[in-house]
Amino acid sequence: MSLSLPFVIAQAAPAGAAGGGVSMIIFMVVIFGAMYFMMIRPQTKRQKEHRAMVAALAKGDEVVTNGGIAGRVDEVGESFITVEIAANVKIKVQKGAVSQVLPKGTLKSA
Q1: pTM score, whole prediction
Q2: Domain ranges in the chain?
Q3: Residue 2 has pLDDT above 90, yes or no
Q4: How far apart, in Å, are the Cα atoms of 77 and each of 17, 26, 92, 104?
Q5: How far is CA 89 from its chain centroid?
Q6: Class assignment of domain 58-109?
Q7: Is 68 left (phi over 0), alpha (psi -120 to 50) or beta?
Q8: How far is the C-alpha of 64 from the C-alpha of 102, rounded, in Å?
């Protein structure tokens, strides 16, 4: 009796679901859609906003770089800007290194 029990269980098991492949494809599409709306779309939106901010930089804007240096834009070039961080102290940084444009007068109040 104990020898025939595994054979009976093995024969009684179903061969597999007929729609298993379709449900797996639907699951993968749903997962990709969730990843797109939760990760990819917000990142591209932030990149677009950053590109617009960098393109709108002008002389006199007060900015903060990725390194945390705050200063006033003195000169705008093709891919670099000159930032005055103190009286007669100017540094040249890439435009992409600007993380934030501050409201006018922020540096005087700090």
Answers
A1: 0.69
A2: 19-56, 58-109
A3: no
A4: 64, 50, 10, 21
A5: 33
A6: mainly beta
A7: left
A8: 7
Contact 85, 91 (CB under 8 A): yes
Cα–Cα distance for residue pair 60/67, rounded to 1 Å: 20
- Which tokens hold the place of 58? 């002008």
Contact 100, 61 (CB under 8 A): no
For residues 59 and 73, the answer to whether their CB atoms sit within 8 Å is yes
pLDDT tens-digit map of 10-45: 555 555 555 578 899 999 999 999 999 999 999 999
Q: What share of the chain is helix, strand, coil (3-state, %, to 5)?
A: 45, 25, 25
